[in-house]
Design brief:
two-stranded antiparallel sheet; 411 residues; single chain; 23 helices; binds heme C; globular; mainly alpha
């Protein structure tokens, strides 16, 4: 054999080996760690293109617990029962993914989520019962009587479909029924490709929806001692601690998830955010929930991981006094409005006169804010955004009622 052909053979051989290394280096970590045929077929093939097409997706996936545990692109993206599929570059993938794709591996979380108000109740709050099957309604009504079997929200209807999609729906679709028979979406808190626990524990994650004048939980938290300490000390916290062993040394200061969901120091993690509540604070008049005793005991158990019981009992007693006082103020205003309607001075329709908006803001902004502030450590919200407004708006409303009566007497 001539030297030239040996040289070419060696050159091509070396080039092939180098190329193989280069291509291998481009494959996601999961392939390298578990080089099974099916994984390479799924994740590797998807990543080959998607590293060009949507690099962020592949990058986020690679840093996730899912990649680390060998969950492939196709494990999530293949169609589940009842999902519309589409052909995609030699694969069959689902046209849209829902909570059902996650539920195939995370049934416990899905079942708890379904029992919470983040499930069907959240969607019914905007769209009523219409989009649900009878089975779905029956199931959710067992946990939240009256919360699903109700008409579509009057304000939503008045504002019209166009704005709803990016308004009410964007927050309330956390419990929207999907075409495949499942309900809701897990990625509102988890994001699609990072599956990060640390992200879910961020106050800002809940604050995507829990903010603004009608449910100022993020703002209240931020100004509470808890929020201030969290922001000051977060760098030293282990935000990604395993939920099964999360301790107060990982997170010595609570975020939203600590109080409402986490399994701190041996408590059980829950995706049912209703479990630890004792009042319907969002309601115009806040009654005790049927699960008052269990709800309050469960939340206090969390507080007691970091506080003494006398402190917490006092805190709850004072907060409950704010609920009682706010209920009385809201009821007084409802009575004024009811008598104006009885006297025929205003229409029975909602949201067709300026005074309707004062009545709505009264409990929906100021009343709620005062109650939420009391339970989550927001003095400014109990006082200036809450009770000050409750006083001022009541005077304004009484004046309007008097003016209406005077006008009517002159008719
Ligand atoms: C041969 C290249 C190629 C392969 C292989 C490939 N994709 Fe894609 N994929 C694309 C391109 C190109 C797009 C369109 C990107 C755009 O619209 O900007 C796309 C879009 C998508 C979309 C969005 C579809 C939509 O219409 O909303 C998903 C989801 C997706 N790919 C998932 C996957 C998964 C999962 C795999 C592996 C099972 C995969 N892809 C394999 C090239 C590929
Ligand atoms: C843990 C489940 C999961 C895994 C694993 C996963 N995806 Fe996704 N992916 C989702 C979800 C959920 C969506 C949102 C789909 C929807 O809204 O219908 C999505 C959306 C996408 C989109 C559309 C993004 C956009 O914003 O337009 C692409 C492309 C995609 N995935 C590619 C991939 C690729 C490539 C892999 C593997 C490297 C992968 N996914 C792994 C759950 C997953
Ligand atoms: C094919 C099975 C499978 C699917 C589908 C799947 N996961 Fe997972 N998921 C896992 C496994 C395995 C783990 C690691 C479990 C463990 O460590 O206990 C995990 C862990 C997680 C974690 C915890 C991450 C951490 O930091 O500890 C979250 C959050 C999560 N998944 C959310 C989702 C969401 C949201 C979806 C749907 C978009 C989904 N998963 C789809 C199998 C799956
Ligand atoms: C995508 C929007 C969205 C995100 C993100 C979100 N929530 Fe919610 N949450 C809602 C909606 C909407 C409701 C009201 C449901 C109803 O009562 O109709 C709600 C209700 C609640 C309730 C009251 C439940 C009850 O029984 O009255 C709690 C507590 C709660 N969320 C906690 C959280 C926590 C903690 C997080 C973050 C880990 C979070 N939420 C993230 C939209 C969201
Ligand atoms: C920024 C996110 C967001 C938007 C936009 C939003 N909501 Fe909500 N909504 C929430 C959250 C969070 C709660 C839970 C409040 C609580 O429990 O304190 C809630 C509670 C409610 C409730 C009381 C709970 C129940 O089940 O009865 C109703 C009703 C409601 N929203 C209807 C609507 C309507 C109608 C619209 C649009 C006109 C809308 N929301 C827009 C986040 C939002
Ligand atoms: C309201 C926000 C929210 C929603 C919606 C949500 N999660 Fe979570 N999830 C969390 C938080 C917060 C944690 C971490 C709890 C903790 O601190 O230990 C978590 C933890 C997890 C874990 C790890 C649990 C463990 O014990 O290791 C899995 C798996 C998971 N979620 C899956 C899901 C699935 C599946 C869905 C949809 C059915 C879902 N999540 C919906 C907020 C959410
Ligand atoms: C220190 C613990 C703690 C923290 C931190 C905390 N909460 Fe709360 N939250 C409570 C308590 C206590 C209540 C009132 C419970 C009851 O009804 O007995 C409450 C009530 C609520 C409600 C009202 C439910 C209703 O009936 O209307 C929502 C929604 C909520 N919290 C969301 C959040 C969000 C979002 C965050 C973070 C921005 C947060 N919480 C931070 C303890 C906490
Ligand atoms: C993970 C630990 C942790 C949990 C859980 C927790 N807290 Fe705290 N809390 C703290 C820390 C730390 C401080 C600041 C204490 C200090 O100033 O030394 C604090 C401060 C407070 C303060 C302010 C005290 C003051 O005088 O400034 C109140 C009130 C409070 N917590 C109530 C609660 C209630 C009510 C719960 C349960 C719903 C709760 N906390 C749950 C850690 C926690």
């Amino acid at each position: 054999m001539e030297f030239k052909s040996v040289f070419i053979a060696v050159f091509i051989g070396t080039a092939l080996i180098v190329a193989a290394f280069l291509i291998n280096g481009q494959r996601p970590g999961v392939d390298l760690a578990h080089p099974t045929a099916s994984l390479i077929r799924a994740t590797g093939k998807c990543a080959e293109c998607h590293r060009q097409e949507t690099a962020a997706v592949v990058h986020q996936y690679e840093t996730s617990v899912h990649a680390n545990r060998g969950v492939t692109c196709l494990d999530c993206h293949q169609p589940s029962d009842g999902q519309v599929s589409m052909d995609h570059r030699g694969f069959t993938i689902a046209l849209a993914l829902t909570a059902k794709n996650c539920a195939q591996c995370h049934t416990t979380e899905y079942d708890q989520f379904q029992r919470s108000r983040h499930g069907a109740a959240a969607w019914a709050a905007v769209a009523g019962a219409e989009d649900f099957t009878e089975d779905q309604i029956e199931f959710a009504e067992r946990f939240h009587p009256g919360a699903i079997r109700r008409p579509a929200n009057a304000l939503a209807q008045l504002e019209g479909d166009g704005v709803l999609t990016l308004g009410c729906t964007a927050c309330h679709e956390i419990g929207k029924p999907n075409l495949d028979g499942s309900i809701g979406s897990c990625t509102q808190c988890h994001s699609r490709h990072s599956a990060s626990i640390a992200l879910a524990r961020e106050p800002q994650t809940c604050g995507q929806c829990h903010m603004g004048p009608d449910h100022s939980q993020l703002e209240i938290y931020t100004e509470s001692k808890h929020g201030v300490l969290f922001n000051a000390q977060r760098a030293s916290m282990n935000m990604a601690a395993d939920p099964k062993t999360l301790s107060v040394s990982d997170m010595p200061v609570p975020t939203c998830s600590t109080c409402h969901m986490s399994g701190l120091d041996g408590l059980k993690v829950t995706h049912d955010t209703t479990e630890r509540l004792s009042y319907w604070l969002f309601a115009s008049t806040s009654d005790k929930r049927p699960t008052y005793e269990q709800g309050q005991a469960a939340m206090k158990e969390v507080c007691l991981k970091c506080h003494a019981s006398t402190q917490i009992d006092t805190f709850y007693r004072e907060a409950e006094e704010v609920v009682v006082a706010t209920n009385a103020k809201v009821e007084a205003v409802s009575e004024i409005m009811a008598s104006l309607r009885d006297e025929g001075l205003i229409s029975p329709e909602p949201f067709d006169e300026p005074i309707d908006f004062i009545e709505f803001d009264y409990w929906h902004y100021y009343g709620r804010t005062a109650k939420h502030g009391a339970f989550m450590g927001g003095a400014d919200f109990v006082q200036w955004h809450g009770n000050y407004e409750l006083l001022a708006k009541r005077i304004e409303l009484e004046e309007l009622a008097e003016a209406l009566r005077r006008e009517h007497a002159n008719d």
